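The records we work with from here on pair a chain with its fold. Here is one such record, which you should read through line by line:
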Amino acid sequence: MFTGIVQGTGTLVSIDEKPNFRTHVVQMPANMLKDLELGASVSHNGCCLTVTGVNGNFVSFDLVKETLRLTNLGDLQPGSLINLERAARFDDEIGGHLMSGHIICTAEVSKIIASENNRQIWFRMPHEDLMKYVLHKGFIGIDGISLTVGEVTKTRFCVHLIPETLQRTTLGTKRLGDKINIEIDPQTQAIVNTVERVLASREAAMATAQAMVELHEK
C-alpha cells in the first residue's frame, strides 16, 4: 500500500527491452535507499513495481506486458523523471489517501491553466464510463500523487496544484497530450459498483413483478 505522497523523483537511466517485457534501471534519491531490498515495493508514477536488483543507488524493476499496456511507464525513455514512493509502513503518517498501486487507465492532459502560485490541469479519461468514479472533492491518484478532484464534467476532470506539488513531482513538467496514470479511490469504486448492482437488482425485480401483473390480467 502507498499514501500518494511522493517521496522523490528518480531518473530512468537504462532500459533492457525484451518481447512484452522490460527492465528499468532507475537512479533513486539517496534518502529512499535505506533498507531497500530485493522484493520491496516501490511506486513508479503510481504503479507498484518490485525491486529486482540493487547496485548502489541504481535500482532495477521488471515490467510485464500488462503493466506496459495499462500505464505510461512503457512510454518512458532514458532520462525520464519518475515519481517515486516506498511502500507505506504501519507507523507512517497517511498524509494523502491509501493507494494500492494498481493503475486503472491513463488519462490525457487536455488543458492547463497557469496563474501565479497555482496551476489547474484538466484530464480526459479514455472512456466516459470511468467518469462515474470521479467525484467532486473525492480522492484520485495522478501519477502516484494523492489529489483532490476539482471540477467534473461528463468526460473530463481537473485538479488544482500548489507550488509544493509542482516542485516535488513531475506534474510541473506535463504538457498537453501527455498520458498520466490514474488510480481510482477503491472505496469510491466499491460504493459506486455496489449502488449500481442494487439498483439493477431492484429494476429487474420491478420488471418481473410488472410482467407477472400483465400476465395475470390476461
User: Anything to note?
Assistant: Residues 3 and 95 are 7 Å apart (CA to CA). The chain has a mean pLDDT of 92. The chain has three domains: 8-86, 105-184, 190-218. Residues 186-217 form the longest helix (32 residues).
